[in-house]
Amino acid sequence: MTTSRPKRLGLFGGTFNPIHYGHLRTAEEVTEALELTRLWFIPAALPPHKTGRLIPPFETRLEMTRLAVGRHSRITVSDIEGRRPGKSYSIETLRQVREEYGRDWELYFILGLDSILEITTWKDYAELFTLCHFVVLDRPGYDRGQLEAVLRREVHPQFQPLPDAAGFQHPGGAKVYFLATTLMDISATRIRGLVGQRCSIRYLLPERVRRYIIKNKLYL
After folding, report:
1. pLDDT tens track for 161-170
2. Distance (Å, rounded) from C-alpha 31 to C-alpha 22?
3. Percent of the chain with pLDDT over 70
4. 209 domain-assigned
């Protein structure tokens, strides 16, 4: 008797202001490495950590993300945070996805090492580890060795290392995986700066997104 593999959903949130090839290649590699059934790009409607500056409307960033992804058999774009009022807290998104999809799906929350090291600034952060696994992406200038202390001190003292330094496991079962992906020295901040200086952003992001930015005079 064979048992069916659980369905796996990756959740890749961000401002995507704008989305670029670094985001897209990461999504492709995570989907392959974890054999995800689906991966959602989830643009934040009202990012709680980025209230100090103006950003384009949610609909604008959603459209750029859709243009970038195009048609893909496993990767798509979700407007889940735009359908909910108020700030876009990850815990509320995870609660909603878990409620709608039940326990038949394994959830994998994708974020950078820099972000998880600041997990205590997130709303209801300890509950996150009861709802999903984490996929932690390397970031230049950040050391994986810092994470164990943060998890044990701030989330649960009984986090245990996974074999082969692959990550850590919460006593409730949730895993925190390290995943090395192709590091591209591309940033949304740099792209916005280039547009503001009226310099080329060709080959930093998909051509359809570049044309959308120019047509709508974004970042000028």
Report:
1. 999 999 999 9
2. 14
3. 97
4. no
For residue 118, the domain's CATH number is 3.40.50.620
Q: What is the pTM of this model?
A: 0.94
The answer to whether residue 199 sits within a structural domain is no
- Cis before 171 (ω within 30): no
Cβ pair 28, 72 in contact under 8 A: no
Question: What is the C-alpha separation between 137 and 43, in angstroms, rounded?
Answer: 18
Q: Are strands 7-14 and 75-77 parallel, antiparallel or unpaired?
A: unpaired
- Report the interhelical angle of 21-33 vs 58-69 (nearest 10°): 60
Whose CA is closest to 42, among 127, 117, 132?
132
* Domain interval for residue 167: 7-185
Nearest-angstrom CA–CA distance, 114 and 98: 25
Instruction: Kindly state whether residue 215 falls inside one of the protein's structural domains.
Output: no
- Flag whether 207 is in a domain: no
**Whole-angstrom distance, CA of residue 9 vs CA of residue 90:** 15
Q: Which of 129, 84, 87, 130 is nearest to 111 (CA)?
A: 129
Number of structural domains found in the chain? 1
Q: Is it the case that residue 172 has pLDDT exceeding 70?
A: yes
